[in-house]
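Exercise 3.2. Students should predict the tertiary structure of the chain below and write it as structure tokens, then compare their answer with the key that follows.

Predict this chain's 3D structure.
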Amino acid sequence: TPRYQEVVYETGNHALACWAMLAAGQSYQAPRLNRRISWVLSSDTPYTYDRGMRLMMLSRLTGESFGPWVQRDADWLVSAVTDKGNFNSEYFGGPSVGFGDHGSGFYGVLGLWGADQAGIELNHKKVWGPIDKQWRLTQQKTPGDDAAGWAVGMLATSGGDDARQARTKTTRSTVNGPMTAAGVASLTLTERYLNGPKLTDPTRDNVSVELRKGLRWLDENFDPTQSPGADWYYSMWTVQRVGRATGRRTFNGIDWFRYITAEMLNRQGDDGLWEDTSGKQGKLLSTGFAMLYLANALEPVAVSKVRFQGRWDNRPNDLWNFAEYASDIYEVDTAWQVVGLDQPMHELSDSPLLYLATHEPFTLSEAEVDRLREYIDAGGMLVFNPEAPWGRLSGSVEALVEALYPGRALEPVAEFHPFYSFHTKLRPTVSMRMAHNGVRPLVVAFTKDIGRGLQVNDLKRYGDSFVALSNIYLFSVGTEPRRVRLQTNYIAPPASWPAEEAAVARVRYGGDYDPEPGALSQLRAVMARDQAVGLAVRTVAPDKLTDERVAFLTTVGGGVLTDDEAQSLRAWVQAGGTLWLDAAGGTPGAVEAAQAMLVKLFPDRVPTPLADDSPIITGQGLGMDAYDTRRVSYSLFAQRQMGKMHEPRLQAVMIDDRPAVIYSPEDLTAALAGVGHWGVFGYDTDSARKLAVNGILHAAR
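Answer key:
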């Protein structure tokens, strides 16, 4: 009953509540929380649940003053491990014996994990070894690699005296989701602690049979509507732990993150609390695990590992180790995930980097290449790591780059590139190649294996592996590693497009006229969602402009307008068209090329700042769905160079009192696509899109 849970496990429940408050960002120095933490620490409780929850609470606290409390509970849990490698629900000292149960066992595992996170050095072989053996012994027995799960009290169903004795001691032998998730989470920890640094040979299967079988059980049976025998909020939090440790984004075809997050929010009571429908555990426990889940749901996803047809997961802990490293140096909890290129863009766009690693030559399908291109066009970046000599894999990577962006090639990354110094100095012996579109890197390929160092997780020997990926990550988010998981620039296309249309063109000429193909496709999605306007977008040569009221002309430097192209554009503008011209990326070369185009188009006219009262700036007279952009924001890179500025800097060539050419020496194109990379000098995505929307509405209405 709730009363039993609340009274017997009072210390654990309040430790859970404090842990949840800390995870949600509450300072432990807040007087009421500090008093509750002190009360939790005062109990010499005999229950495994209490000790496990208290250690997880302590893992969120810093400072030497908490060290003795962590050591006390860590010593207790180490002593409480039974001779069979499990935990009983309670322990009063002396020899700990028996088979225990998996409910208590997982709380013990969580506590030891918390002790490790708090800095306690455990004897991995002595502590984690018996626990690892117990979870393997007690897994459901199935042939081959068939799915296999765990139950609360079920130990082995065949083989050995321990198994026969176990069958006489428990009747709780129904395999279920919560305990299987606990088993998978436990094995991911034990394998990492016991064998992680050894799992570097890409020619071997570095995931154990038992862990594969447990993951397969979840992938075949996961049902987020059910939590037999356990609090639903605890069960879903456990699934989240499995997802964080293994990177799995889907189980049983279900995007567990989006489903559970939405359901968690929907289930909150009017009093702000949560309670499982069974009512067995009480509101304090349910609310604690719900808060823990939601606090972790905001974690930025630094990088996603690409799953493909081939050996894609040779180092099972590489990105998990990197995520913990990033969490430490950026002081924000950071996650990672595994994605397939058949998943929708809104799932891929959760992370700014896709990490593809293998030791064998590979080929992606045409559909996978298309989805990967869509991801990169939306502001993402692909990082490739060779787990074999570069010469063996270079052909596959170069062929992939050619399939993604014909004509672009991998070029060496210079030692003065920010990848070598952006956050931490990186030795030039870590060589990289990249494909670049003139605005930003699209694909980065290491030519030496960094994944081995990530898997070994030894910063003294392999610090360059972490620094290299960290610099790329921080570059890709424009120094904003705290962007929460769901806060992306990607706008999914609507299920059906609005009927109202405004014709828009991308101007094609002899240069790199479309460096960011996602710019206009994302603008189209924005206007369909927010203005109920359907954009008819096409790419045309200047002499083919017809019904378009707005056209976008972009340059990254290099390439010029011919006399005929300039004459056609000039005639179209003079006939009433509005031309937007910008220097993509805002680089000096792009600005110089854009200014040359402007002079060629209108040699006798000098652009002037767009008037503060222009409808394109104020949104006035353009309808309720226009924007007031008198105050805008710029990328952090731009702010670093020009200081804090919030006024738009658009310039205009006026014809008959109308802004016929809108010129921006600052980037608009990359921002429209949703690119947040460092090095882009221009508007941020939100401001660029609002300015462009106003411009289209002004021309159309």
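Discussion points: The longest strand covers residues 301-307. The two ends are 65 Å apart (CA to CA).
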